[in-house]
Amino acid sequence: MTVFSQHAAPLTSGFSSRERRRWLFRPACTVLLLCLPACTSQTLFGPGNGYVHSIHTPEEQNTVYQDSQVQPKGHVRIHAPRLQKSAARPAVMTSDPAGSPPNHAVIPVSWDTATTVNAASATQFMPAEPRLDPSLGRLTPADLYPDEYLVDGGDRGQPVHYFGDTRQGFETEDTIAEYADHLGKQHVRSSSRVAVYAPRFGAVRVIEGANADIQVRHAAQAKDVAAVGSLHRQDIVEQAVRDAEPVAVGSRRRADGAETRRSHLLAEQETRPQLNNKVDQGMEGWANSSLSLLERNQSSEISHQLANAVIWTRETFPVLSASTSQAGRVETRFTAQATVGIDDERAEKSEIRVIKLADRETAGSGDIVGFTIRFVNTGDYDLHDVRIVDNLTPRLQFIPDSAQTDRSGEVISEPNGEGSQVLTFEFDEPLRARESGTIEFKARVK
Amino acid sequence: MLHRIIRAWQLNSRTQAAGLLVAAAACTLATASAAAQSVSYHHPLNQRMPPGQAAAWLQHIRQENSGWLQPVQIDVPGGADVSVFSGSANTTGITSAPALIAVSPGHTYRLRLANMPEFPDVELYPSLEILDRLHPPPGQENRFPIPVPLTRDDIRLALSGRLVTRVIYLEQPQLAQQLDPLRREIPQTVLPSENALQEADRLGRPMIIVRLGSRRPAAGTRSTLFFGTGGAAEVRVSDSSPTGVPKPAESLGRLPQRSRELRGEGRFRLQTNPSRNRLPAVHRPEVPSFTSNR
User: Fold this and answer.
1) Lowest mean pLDDT among A23-37, A107-121, A224-238, A266-280
2) Which of A277, B85, B157, B250 has its CA 20 to 30 A from that of A244?
3) What is the mean pLDDT of residues B84-113?
4) Residue numbers in B near A206 (CB within 8 A)
5) Given pLDDT bands bounded at 50, 70 and 90, which one contains residue A251?
6) CA A411 to CA B266: how far, in whole Å?
7) Who among B62, B164, B214 is closest to A130 (CB)?
8) Lowest mean pLDDT among A114-128, B205-219, B229-243
9) What DSSP line would sit under A42-78, residue for residue?
């Protein structure tokens, strides 16, 4: 959006600074107010309202607005790109059902002035779209409804990465291959995903008393503990002691003559609690309290402060400064050395491609699913320290001694903290160029 | 901030006042946005709504389950005669538990449970509110019904005058529990004041609301809502044992043995099979396209 305010400068040339700011501020506010609706509409106000607005086609979005007509002073031009036509037309009521909208109507975002709108179509019900449209791409049922499938493989969620020697982003379901190339650089590749249809269900139960509510009534009665509370409050023993006290015990306290005096500078405060008597006598008692006058006198002293101004004298002497730069001469000679080497024709860089498969399409609780992991070196260099790491999804239980491979190595099974295991397949020998390997193992569906 | 705006306005410095006003509005918006982010979602549906309302809302939103009949499996301990009750004295479509009945998502059904050997002379009329459906591979719909288990405890509570509501949900695989949540000995229970539907939504996808009480239809019951919302129902016969229902050993809900080896943990030597040293040597049944790599 481009805003032109070419008429603003001559208008403000002869004003004071405050008025200039006001003149600059008012068009700026106008532009600010017009910007938001201009983004969502093509016409803000009809012609003749004083505000002129240009409509541009998408092809004109990058062109500068040029208009030979003389515009009134103080007006601004707003170059708003024409919005694309939206497929879903909102329900908009207009006063002209059969024709184009009136000039004073505020047009919503998805409005297209090239087409007409009638009230019938505007109020037509538009059903909600399904959760995912399969026609959008090659979406499998496992992509559409992943909660019905057991998915293993790939790199779910945060991508696998390394912070120092710590592997991070390795969530359940992830299967990766770690290896070092011929230069010793470490790499990681994720496998393909395999999905087995195996929904599992749970239930949340609520127990309510429908009408009699027997359970709640019992609970309330037990919680009330009316009998015990009543006994505790009666407290016959304590009551007997109290009855005995007034007969023989009496106390008299008298606090008078106490005087507190504090003085701080010229502020003085006197507090004299006098005639403060309290007599406790058995069945009757009374207390008299009175305070004497509270006096407080404050007076402020005149504070004098003298400030002597000290005259500072500073003299600056120009000092001559001289520096000498000594440029040295550097000579460099490059001598071409004879280099003898062998061109490596193995141009293709080595990578590992990991494919994971399952031998079942569907499974239920207790079923055993066999998984196959195929990995192949697609390049011309050997790969070293190859490890296939599989973080099983929580509903899979690895079956020991079920792992097989055509390469020598070992498998390490560790709990992953989610109820299943992390399987690490390590191999004794590097994966030669264009070679492949296969791992098979079985897991039980929980 | 406010007194500065007023002061600037009084001094006739509209520019400064407007600038301060914009700054204050920006701060307010930022604060409101931050506050809005900290507020959790409001869950408009709960189990205390009238039966059928939650299913109708979800059906209206999704618009995709109208022609689908979702099999559900009614499981009553000790067995029972299960039928879709419509108020008629001559009930048709009686089947024995575990009963496989296909119902329409978005509708509510009234079932009739009778002839329960463990509860003689007892008839129960639970209601099923079908919220959502499954999407199994074609031809295997009956192998993956939505299980509706009614336990002895549920029936005893219902006969004592209480209303037992179960929100059955499809478990989120990434949040899967160690044991089968539907068959655990101590069911997941929330207080009546809490939203069971929200809790089920937190754990997975709510599928069915089951309401089990001891109310029996009187002779003059005319309320059509009591008998459901008129959705289609079909009694089916399972051609094989449903896969979604756990095996009996799993249904006991016992913890797996704690032996580390039995749990499949440790270091094992890979069994090398030299005859399978090349990829083409692996013979596996053809895997359907949606289970292979993308």
Assistant:
1) A107-121
2) A277
3) 83
4) 47, 164-167, 189-192, 194, 196
5) very low
6) 8
7) B62
8) A114-128
9) S-SS-TTSS---EE--GGGTTSPP---SPPPTT--EE
Task: Specify the DSSP class assigned to residue A317.
Answer: -
Which residues of chain B have a CB within 8 Å of the CB of A147? Answer: 170-173, 204-205
This complex has an ipTM of 0.71
Query: How far apart, in whole angstroms, are the C-alpha atoms of residue B221 and residue A95?
Result: 51
SS3 content of chain B, % helix, strand, coil (to 5): 25, 25, 50
Q: Which of A24, A156, A196, A204 to mutate to test the interface with B (most CBs of B within 10 A)?
A: A204
Q: Report whether pLDDT(A96) > 50.
A: no
Identify which has the larger pLDDT, A269 or B23: B23
Distance CA B235, CA B95 (A): 7
Strand partners, A233: none
Cβ–Cβ contact B174 with A under 8 A: yes
Select, from the ranges A11-25, A206-220, B17-31, B139-153, the one with the highest average predicted confidence (pLDDT): B139-153
What are the Cα distances from residue B157, in Å, to A207, A217, B130, B161, B211? 8, 16, 23, 7, 12
Distance (Å, whole) CA B209 – CA B58: 13
Residue found by looking up tokens 């809900």 in the block: B253
Which chain B residue is nearest to residue A128, measuring alpha carbons? B61
Contact B171 A202 (CB under 8 A): yes
In chain A, DSSP finds a helix count (H) and a strand count (E) of: 7, 24
Residue B149 at interface with chain A, using a CB cutoff of 8 Å = yes
- pLDDT tens-digit readout, B40-95: 677 888 888 888 888 888 888 877 656 788 999 999 988 888 988 877 766 667 78
β-strands A436-445, A368-377 pairing = antiparallel
**Hey, is the C-beta of B262 within 8 angstroms of any chain A C-beta?**
yes
Please measure the distance between the N-terminal and C-terminal CA atoms of chain B and give it in whole angstroms. 57
What pTM does this model have? Answer: 0.56
CB B166 within 8 A of CB B209: yes
Q: Alpha helices of A321-398 — where are they, by DSSP H? A: none
- Contact assessment for residue B150 and residue B77, using Cβ atoms and an 8 Å cutoff: yes
Closest by Cβ to B187, choosing from A127, A203, A214 = A203
- The span from the CA of B172 to the CA of A200, in Å, is 8
How are beta strands A396-398 and A421-427 bridged, if at all? Answer: unpaired
Q: What is the pLDDT of residues A301-346, one digit of tens each?
A: 444 444 444 444 455 455 555 555 565 666 767 666 666 666 666 6
Those residues whose C-beta lies under 8 Å from the C-beta of residue A360, and which sit 6 or more positions away, are A196, A367, A369, A370
Cα gap B231→A365, rounded to integer Å: 31
Residue B185 to residue B167: CA distance in whole angstroms: 17
Which of B 227-256 lie inside 8 A of A, CB atoms?
Answer: 242-247, 249-250, 256
Coil, strand or helix: which one is A10? Answer: helix
Paired with A149 in beta bridges are A197
